[in-house]
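Hi R.,

Here's the chain you asked about this morning:
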Amino acid sequence: MPPPALAFTTPRKLPKAQQLSGRVVVVDVAFAGLGSGFEKVTLPFIEALGDRLRAWVDHHDHDEHARFAADPRFVLAKKSEHGACPEMIDPALVARVGPVETIVCHTDFDGLASAAKWMREGVEPYPGCDADARAVDTRIGEPSAVAQRFDRALRARHNDAGLFGLIVRHLSTGLADASLWEPIDRAAAELIPVEHETRRAAQRYERLPPGIAVVDVREGFGKLDKTLLLLMGQEREAVSVVIDKNNVAIAARFDSGLNFLTLFGLAGGMPTRVSLPLKRLPDVLGALGADPASASRFV
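And here is the predicted structure, written out as tokens:
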């Protein structure tokens, strides 16, 4: 049987079910959460696939998980239960689901590693890959040098489907072809000037009581690595906030105990990192307890 086809996606932009061949498994794709995203995006996709959907494996919190608790195709967990998706995939699960023609996966290291592990019938692409995916996805602990090469390439080219396919191929073959590192490392090198610009942006962080680091990057900056910028904010305060032209991103350490889904009334996603429309900036700063006088200059 030929290897499954791959469909790379994000929670709010799922592929059309009719364009996916045969039996389908979905890995590391959260249910859409903002507004009525689940009813408009996720549920129609599930219904359109029908019996062709053989498994949906994911580790992002969502209120609608309970709806599928009795359906064995849905293997769903909270982020606190599984920091990354690959650790949820094992030989027993892949054997129970049986053959599939298409794997739909998220486009970060976590998602691509999940797809590769499924292709390898539940076996890690390399020893420690599950732990690496957890470290990369939670930003807790130090991922291996192997994982950092993949992660840096993906952060440099986060919309490059060709790179996604190359990485899954490399992982699914157990890193057997050393020549595949060359285009991956070349992509990772593109992150260097982005990191320089990101560090320059981080110098603009301002501290607001009680424990908030805020940076406004709506003007004066080139391409930035938002993940890195949020992490730099967390070096200053417990919660980091990045304001760009369209959105406001909020993040805290994975083990902080904070839950932004509850705080901002969101249905699903990652509890310690969310992104909201820019128009909600006043609500965000208010909910975080920022002093109105101090927060007003950002609004």
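One quick note: The chain has two domains: 5-189, 193-295.

Cheers,
M.
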